């Protein structure tokens, strides 16, 4: 199991991730935009979101640091724009931690299958810490 860091930005994520890649001598990041995601007619994507970064990641000194712009209309607070990401090959470990941490907390997204993971969810625990949970089946989709 690994705990990774996830940083959120307010529309300048591409600039930030490219900067950090240069600073730390990391490979150029693969960047997935919100516009790269499968469309859903029930939830049309605002034009201003299409070029914003949905996901990027870098390896910095052996740690995975992931990046995203906040979706237009979602709250952004500088200084609170970090979450911990539990990435595990053990889906039961993910489910157990998620269900324990959601007690007294607020679920952002229940554990569910997404186009990038068989099991993903997010929550804020009772201490205000943001968590993301992602099942790693060995297939990189980003």
Automatic annotation (TrEMBL):
InterPro entries: Glyas_Bleomycin-R_OHBP_Dase, PhnB-like
Coiled coil: none
Cross-referenced Pfam families: 3-dmu-9_3-mt
Limits of the PhnB-like domain: 6-132
UniProt protein name: VOC family protein
Organism: Paenibacillus anseongense
């Amino acid at each position: 199991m690994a705990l990774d860091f996830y940083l959120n930005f307010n529309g300048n994520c591409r600039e930030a991730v490219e900067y950090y890649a240069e600073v730390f001598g990391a490979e150029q990041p693969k960047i997935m935009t919100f516009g790269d995601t499968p469309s859903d007619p029930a939830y049309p994507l605002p034009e201003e979101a299409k070029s914003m970064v949905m996901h990027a990641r870098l390896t910095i000194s052996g740690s995975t640091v992931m990046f995203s712009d906040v979706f237009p209309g979602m709250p952004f607070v500088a200084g609170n724009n970090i979450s911990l990401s539990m990435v595990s090959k053990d889906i039961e470990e993910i489910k157990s931690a998620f269900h324990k941490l959601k007690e007294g907390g607020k679920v952002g997204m229940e554990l569910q299958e997404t186009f990038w993971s068989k099991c993903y969810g997010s929550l804020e625990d009772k201490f205000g810490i943001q968590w993301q949970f992602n099942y790693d089946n060995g297939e990189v989709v980003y």
